[in-house]
Amino acid sequence: MSETIHVDWKQMRELAGPFPRQAFQFVRDGLAHAVELAHGEQEQTHESADESKHVSGQELCLGLREYALERYGCMAGTVLDHWGLHATDDFGRIVFAMVEAGLMNKTDEDRLEDFHCVYTFAEAFAPKQLS
After folding, report:
1. In DSSP terms, which residues pair with 71 in a beta bridge?
2. FRET pair for 5, CA 20 to 30 Å: which of 21, 54, 122, 123?
3. pLDDT tens for residues 50-78?
4. Burial environment of residue 104 by CB neighbours within 10 A (0 to 12, 13 to 18, 19 or more)
């Protein structure tokens, strides 16, 4: 039986910023995509799954970019902007708020700074990048 985690949305928004729930869900869903990009599809034993599926802040940002483009196509930048996401630093704030809430894990080496300026949204979601 899986453990149900009560999510304190008010606290998470205080930690991360006034992002809507969709932004948090996008980051959480995009994590699986980032893990697959970084590690490929691997069969894992339960004991080794957490450690071997870790991605860095930079890897997560790159995975979230690709996930957004796959999911929203040429509207990816517009969707993220609508949610108030304007920089990779915003992904980091969401991740660390989710870590604090027990929804994600981090290693001792992971830092919020790992998400700083990985790419600019203007370049990452520019129409020329989508062709």
Report:
1. none
2. 54
3. 556 889 999 999 999 999 999 999 999 99
4. middle
Question: Which amino acid type is present at position 109?
Answer: E
**Type of residue found at 41:** E
SS3 assignment, position 55:
coil
Q: Read off the DSSP letter of residue 18.
A: S
Alpha-carbon distances of 11 from 6, 53, 62, 101, rounded to whole Å: 12, 27, 27, 8
**One-letter amino acid for residue 11 of the chain:** Q
Q: Do 53 and 39 meet the contact criterion of CB atoms below 8 Å apart?
A: yes
Q: Are 91 and 24 in contact (CB under 8 A)?
A: no
Residue pair 130/74 in contact by the 8 Å Cβ criterion: yes
The C-alpha angle with vertex 85 and arms to 84 and 87, in degrees rounded to 5, equals 140
How many C-alpha atoms does 17 have within 13 Å on its Cβ side? 16
CB atoms within 10 A of CB 58: 16
